[in-house]
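Usage

Read records sequentially. Each one opens with the input sequence:
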Amino acid sequence: MNPVPDIFRILPEVILTLTGVAVMLIDASLPPAFPRRPLGWVAALGTTLALWASLWQLSLPVGTGFFSTVETSPFTVFFHVLICGIVLVALLLSLDTLPEDSHHQGEYYALVVFGAVGMCLLTGAVELLLVFIALEISSISTYILAGYRKQTGRGPEAAIKYFLLGSFATAFLLYGVALIFGATGTTQIYEIAHLAPTAQNHSLVLAGLALMLVGILFKVSAAPFHVWTPDVYEGAPAPVVALLSTAPKAAAFALLLRVVYELFPTLHSLWSPLLWIVAVLSMTVGNLAALRQQNVKRMLAYSSIAHAGYLLAAFAGLGTSGIAAASFYAAAYAAMNVGIFAVITLVSGYDEDLPMVEDYRGLIYRSPLLGSLLIFFLASLVGIPFTGGFFGKFYSFSAAVDGGAVALAIIGLLNSGLAAAYYLRVALMTAQPSAGKNAEAAVPTPQVGVAVGAALLMAVAATLILGIVPGEVLRAAEAGAHTLQAPPSPQSVHGLGIERRPNP
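and closes with the structure output:
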């Protein structure tokens, strides 16, 4: 068999990088008064090509490239497709919602694409230094995007808090990598997996694992590492929050799956109870805090913390069942969360003049389409059948039960019932007539453009497919789980681009 060229292993990242560079070069060459909106279409086209390239990678044999630092497998392809899909929807959402006179639109689209490069690279990295580099590429882009509305007070505040706390979390991760290198003498994930159980200084391995978990759990906004989430969600523009709340978390969860199931599978008895506790804290703290919120974006910020807990419940599953359940939940949450932030973007506007729950009163009368879609996505977040949220929670809690964590599944179900209270409050508000005869006329009716309409259509279709016919996505998640559970032999990782086949 002819070896696969290394460039094919990172083809989506190459396409995204070239797209970002092209956007910046075109932006610099355009006159200042020329509209920058077409640059968003360039970014969307490049992201679509990267999505196609990710699917094409399924035809490649499972293997590594660039001196065994990046891997191509069904697991990496699953998250590449998910991330590229999220980025595409976020770009379409931005095209119709960013004002024509907003500052630095070219840089905005370039940052979104460059952030996607880091997220995709993070899911395929099998070398810890490359993991750190990919995480920084993603993080720097999102730090800047969080403060995009710099003319407001909340925008810079969100960016500064996100940057400072994110830097501390990254330092924890890097220190953990250093300790693991000190214990094993390597940063290659497959080599560490074979050397860690027999490492002479086992305490360094345990400390390294603990520090890496702190860094990753911050990125997924799991409690008690969640303090940045509400302020960043409130201060960043809604299209940016649609991206921040899904794509970086999907990449971070992919890294977490690789760390616990592939890097340290022999330490399952240590990390499993720890993630059990974090899952319970995230569910409970997120839902209780969301109940008190009157700002919709802050409510959804705490909701995202709770959903991180639901997803972490799948980590109690054994082997492929836990990996597949967590991967499926990441896809289901991305679909419904991007959709609901698309609706919020249209209702509140770029300047977010209508940020409170009360402002959604009578939405279904002002705009029947957006009101119905908001209720639909809220139903999916609750976990109502025939939506992606239902099967996401079903598979996650089933994996927890199969792994013996019955109490965790029960706590998750109770928290799902608790979450229904604040989701239902927003849904009922949209169906209530506005107070006063002329109240509805005073609130502008949101307009749905072509690009944002396509974004909403993609989010609705994905949520329905995952809720009605989830079989294909679940099979893809299971295929990825099998490859993640089948690392190569210690000898093969020393080769350049050694190909391997997943275990049946």
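Summary fields computed downstream for this record:
- The CA atoms of residues 153 and 235 lie 8 Å apart.
- The chain is about 70% helix and 0% strand.
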